Amino acid sequence: MVPLSYYLVLGGILFVCGVLGFLIKRNIITIFMSIELMLNGVNLTFVAFAAQWHSLSGQIFVFFVMVVAAAEAAVGLAIIIAVYRTRETLNVDQVNLLKL
Amino acid sequence: MTPNPYLWLIPVLPLAGAAINGFFGRHSSKKAITAIALTFCGAAFALALFIALRFSSAAAPYSFPLAHWIRSGSFSVDFDFYLDQLSLVMMLVVTGVGFLIHIYSVGYMWEDDGYYRFMAYLNLFMFFMLTLVLAKNYLMMFIGWEGVGLASYLLIGFWFVKDSAASAGKKAFIVNRIGDFGFLIALFLMIKHFGTLDFPALFAKIQPLSPEIAGAGTLTAIGLLLMVGAAGKSAQLPLYVWLPDAMEGPTPVSALIHAATMVTAGVYMVARSHMIFERAPSAMTVVAIVGTLTALFAATIGIAQTDIKKVLAYSTVSQLGYMFMACGVGAFSAGIFHLMTHAFFKGLLFLAAGSVIHGIGGEQDMRKMGALRRYMPGTFITMGIATLAIAGIPGLAGFFSKDEILWKAYSSPYGSPVYWLIGVLTALITSFYMFRLMYMTFGGDDYRGAPADDPHAHASHGHGHDDAHGHHEPHESPWVMLGPLVVLAFLSVVGGWIGIGGRFEHFLAPVFQAPASELARETGGETASQLTEKLLMGVSILAAFGGWFLAWLFYSNKPQLPEKIAASFGSFYKAVANKYYVDELYAVLFVKPLINGSTEILWHGVDQNVIDATVNNSADAARHVSDEARHMQSGNLRSYAGWVAAGGALVIAYMVWMGVR
Q: pTM of this prediction?
């Protein structure tokens, strides 16, 4: 059996990749995908803990996270399309109309 | 119980006048202002006369509770008025002379833009002065005391656009504060030791105490502190310096406040506190010495002044010194008597001086006057009468009161021949400088002022009294101003007659309850003392005429003499003409150190470096910190996310570290 720590390290690596992608990339879609990556890193730790402790609540939690992520993906992609239509760019640094 | 329950109206009537004129006068016609000011002041005078006529010595003192004020445990102070022989005299003098000066002011101030303000202030002054003299306890007296100081400040600085007037007002107020401080401490001591400020209750507690012959006790301390207050208000050494400067005010103010009434408040207060002073002989001695020295000191300054009002101002200081001399030797009634006659003749002198100043277009320098008897005979005659009265020529008011004081200074158990000698010397000087004033102003053959620009302008000129109006042919003042002069001249002549045969003293006796020792002495050496009295009287008459003669010699007969004498005295003359450099001395001793200390230590040191610095530096620090911190808020979303991530990482690191431990 694969020890728990392997899952946790993998989850951590996924999460950090997501964070770095979020901070570094400028394309909105890439940022969006980085967020998904962070969520999945978290999901992996949930599931790993649930399997370790034989508790279902972690697994249930992952379902919730996936539901929210799906909703977010729907809304987020809609927003991205809307932004692209009006601004003709996906660079977040140029989407700064609310900034002073 | 109270035969005249309207006593409280006497102070309140002028207050009402002041309120009406003060609030609504700006938009009223001058006639309406005049009517209100004179009506309310005149009503107070009429009521005072009415009360005086129904006054019976047998039933005095009356007291009139008006309202509760302070009730704190066993200590209480109420708004009570008090009428005995002493306050009756003061009330009549204040309302009578005050009313006459109100009438005079109508003529004198008519052209002034601040006419309503002036009348309102005058009425306000009357209110406070009457509160002062009619109060039943020291605290109410203190209200009046402070109030007249306020009115005095307002009126000295009446022409406040003039720097000298504004600063003279401030000087008067500040110097008075020093005296008021002493008065206030005296009040605290009374509360602490006797638990009351009511005159009857307080004096009843003090009466059984024996005089503090040796050393200083509570009563001596109270007496000395009261004297500090009196010296401030009544312009005695060393606090007299404000009074000559107070001449910056309009002349009716000088007459009313700085000659006839307010400055005598100190004398009244000392006389009212006679019960304290009689039991504190060392305080009495201080009063007498201060009075005597002031009398001589101020009189000598008066010799060398050239401003007509300054001469009168120093004369006032000197005469107040006489009154304190009288109080200091235990002759309180003589002091009050002189207070009354002085109110008549000095009020008259100031009003006449005002008439002169008014008549020649605002000039106050006597060297630019002369021969005015031809132009203004009415003023000349009335002022002449006042001069005779103040000089102590027999038969006029000043003679009786001054002689009474000199005699008491010699004969009273507290007295001493030294007081008498200085008093007579002062009388000589007084007579000299007063007749000098008369000769310089009215005598001679030529008017030394600038000639009229246009002789025909006489008919149509305005009655200006400030420098802006230029010079005119000297002219007599209108009747509204001459009238009060005539009345006061009459009083200056007959005012002393009520003192003949000690009638005035007997009238006031119930208040002062002459010390038994003095009575014994008077009955003892009857014939010898009468002879002495006549002799001393002769000397003082001689002094009066001697001063007159010298003045005539110097300023009428041989006008070149004064310069020669002045030259031969050299530096001494210079010192006298410069008022002994007292103002300069005070400037070096008190004013400069205070200003420098305030500027360097309190302002530049404490205020700027500590208080301001604390506020400014904390504000600066906040700004600098924010200045640095605002770079975090770049508006760049990803940098925010970076902060969040860094924060999250920090928290996790912390938790991991804690977990490891």
A: 0.78
Contact of B296 with B425, CB cutoff 8 Å: yes
User: Over chain B, what is the mean pLDDT?
Assistant: 85
For B260-319, strand residue ranges (E) read none
Contacts of A94 in chain B (CB under 8 A): none
pLDDT digits (tens, 9 = 90+) for B382-395: 999 999 999 988 88
Q: Contact, B329 vs B419, CB < 8 A?
A: yes
Place of tokens 């302002």: B603
Question: Tens of pLDDT along A81-93?
Answer: 999 999 888 888 8
Place of tokens 């006048």: B17
The reply to whether B524 touches chain A by the CB within 8 Å rule is no
Among the ranges given (B12-26, B302-316, B359-373), the one the predictor scored with the smallest mean pLDDT:
B359-373
Q: With beta carbons under 8 A apart, name residues in chain A contacting B645.
A: 19, 22-23
d(CA B95, CA B497) in angstroms, rounded, equals 20
Smallest CA–CA distance, residue A49 to chain B, in Å, is 18
From the list B621, B358, B551, the residue with the least C-alpha distance to B469 is: B358
Minimal C-alpha gap between A38 and chain B (Å): 12
Give the residue from A23, A24, A93, A94 with the most B CB atoms within 10 Å of its CB, the best one to mutate: A23
B636 chain-A contacts, CB cut-off 8 A: 93
The pLDDT assigned to B463 comes to: 42
**SS3 state at B393:** coil
Whether B132 shows a pLDDT value over 90: the answer reads yes
Closest C-alpha to B273, from B342, B189, B150: B189
- Predicted confidence (pLDDT) per residue in A10-68, tens digit: 999 999 999 999 888 889 999 999 999 999 999 999 999 999 999 899 999 999 999 99
**How many Cα atoms sit within 13 Å of B301 on the Cβ side?**
25
Contact criterion met (CB < 8 Å) for B635 and A92: no
Whether the Cβ atoms of residue B121 and residue B18 lie closer than 8 Å to each other: yes
Helix (H) / strand (E) containing B77: strand B75-83
Contacts of B422 (CB under 8 A, 6+ apart): B292, B293, B295, B296
Q: Which segment of B155-169, B237-251, B455-469, B543-557 scores lowest on mean pLDDT?
A: B455-469
Report the share of chain B in percent with pLDDT over 90.
Answer: 35
The per-residue pLDDT for B4 is 62
**Cα–Cα nearest to B13, from B43, B46, B35, B33:** B43
B460 pLDDT more than 70: no
Any B CB within 8 A of A8 CB: no
pLDDT of residue B456: 41
Q: Which DSSP letter does residue B498 get? A: G
CB distance B118 to B109 below 8 Å: yes
Q: Over the range B406-430, which residues count as b (16 or more CB within 10 Å of their CB) and which as e?
A: bbbbbbbebbbeebbebbbebbbbb
CA–CA dist B254, B377 (Å, integer): 23
Q: How far is CA B307 from CA B167, B441, B540, B658, in A?
A: 19, 11, 27, 93
B294 closest CA partner among B227, B358, B356: B227
User: CB distance from B72 to chain A under 8 Å?
Assistant: no
Nearest chain B residue (CA) to A99: B635
Give the Cα-Cα-Cα angle B248, B321, B393 (nearest 5 degrees).
Answer: 95
Using a pLDDT cut of 70, give the percent of chain B over it: 93
Angle between helices B265-272 and B85-109 (to 10 degrees): 170
Query: Hey, which residues does B79 pair with through a beta bridge?
Result: B67
Predicted pLDDT at B265: 92
CA B112 to chain centre: 24
Residues of A in contact with B642 (CB under 8 A): 23
Q: Is residue B115 within 8 Å of residue B102, measured between CB atoms?
A: no
